[in-house]
Every structure is written in structure tokens, then in C-alpha cells.
Amino acid sequence: MSEYFLSSRRRLLAGLSSAVTAGSLAGCSEGSGGTDGTDSAERTDATDDGAESDLDLREANVVDVAFEETDGGAYDFDVTLHHDDDGEDGYANWWQIERPDGTQLGRRDLLHAHSEQPFTRSETIEIPDDVTCVVVRGHDETHGYGGRVMLATLDSGATRAVDQGSDRQVVEPADCPE
């Protein structure tokens, strides 16, 4: 083969490799989550069906959840959080799946701030056979639990948003969507 062909091929492969690497990192870029010294709440409009509405973005709000059963009683959860990670010292540092009584079933840790808002992260969680409804709850470093949670009925796939305010609220099984 000619030297020109090999050189062109190497440049092409190097360029493709760089593009793939950049693309895979784009969804989870590092951020430091600085502060501007204020404590003002940023709010956005929302409705009761899960769309954004009057969210306190200082809290780790769950604004969407999708899930699918896998083999052996596990579920793949895609959870979308909305939190002002860049607006203060803390950031949304995890989301978890729990029973309505608050018993944790599984958790996805978030290791850094996310400047892209809202953002979605996934995790596979084992769900016991007797659990039909779960609570998806976000958490942030500064304020702890608070904001919007999502209730999800595993059999039907139905979800319901619940604005719990700045403190963790108990969820009654009767609150689960049908």
C-alpha cells in the first residue's frame, strides 16, 4: 500500500476515535458547582401530570422516570433529575428507589455536578416480588431530600409526580397511580 493511503487511513481512524470518545463523555461532563453567594430559589412552571411546575431547583427534583423489567425481578430505571447543580456548593448526589414506607431498594450515586439540566441517569435495581409501587426520590448534598418525587406502579407503568416541598414526606400506598 502507498504511504499516502496509510497516512490518510491513520488520520481517519484517529479522528473517528476522538469523536467517539468526545461523544461518550458529552453526557456526563465534569462540573464544580460553584456558588454566587445568594440563596434565592429558582422556579419553573409545572403541571400535576409530571411536567415541570414551580420546582424549587435548589432541591433534587425527579421530573421523569421510565422503567422496564429485566430478567430475574430486576428493573432498569431511567431517572431524570432537575436541580440547580451550578448554582450552589452542593449538587444532586443520588437518586433512589424505595418502597412507599421509605425502605430503600436501590440507589444510583452521582459523583459530580451536572451543568446540563435536566439530566437522566440509569441503574438496574432488584425489586422484590411483593412490591407493586415504588417511590423515586432525589437527594442533594446541601438540602438532603426534598422537591418532587415520582410514584411508579410497576405492573401498569403509570407514574405520578408528588411535590413534597423541602422536607421528605411519607407516601401512602393509596397515593400510587393505577
Quick description:
The protein has 178 residues and is of the alpha+beta class.
Keyphrases for this structure?
three-stranded antiparallel sheet, Immunoglobulin-like, six-stranded antiparallel sheet
Structural account:
The chain is α+β, with helices and mostly antiparallel strands. The protein has a domain at 61-175: Immunoglobulin-like, CATH 2.60.40. The chain has one helix and nine strands. It has one helix at residues 3-26, and strands spanning 61-69, 74-82, 92-98, 104-109, 119-126, 133-140, 144-145, 148-153, 159-163. The strands form two sheets. Strands 3, 4, 6, 7, 8 and 9 form a six-stranded antiparallel sheet that branches. Strands 1-2-5 form a three-stranded antiparallel sheet, with no helix packed on it. Strand 1 (61-69) and strand 2 form a beta hairpin. Mean pLDDT is 73; it is low at 1-51.
User: Number of helical runs?
Assistant: 1
Radius of gyration: 20 Å
Could you list the spans in which at least 5 consecutive residues all have pLDDT below 50? 1-51
Quick one: biggest sheet?
Answer: 6 strands, antiparallel
Provide the β-strand percentage band.
25-35%
Principal-axis shape: globular
Spell the H/E element sequence.
HEEEEEEEEE
Whole-number mean pLDDT: 73
Based on DSSP secondary structure assignment, what is the total number of beta strands? 9
Proportion in helices:
10-25%
CATH topology of the domain at 61-175: Immunoglobulin-like
Q: How many angstroms does the end-to-end distance come to?
A: 66 Å
The assigned CATH architecture of the domain at 61-175 is: Sandwich
CATH class wording of the domain at 61-175: Mainly Beta
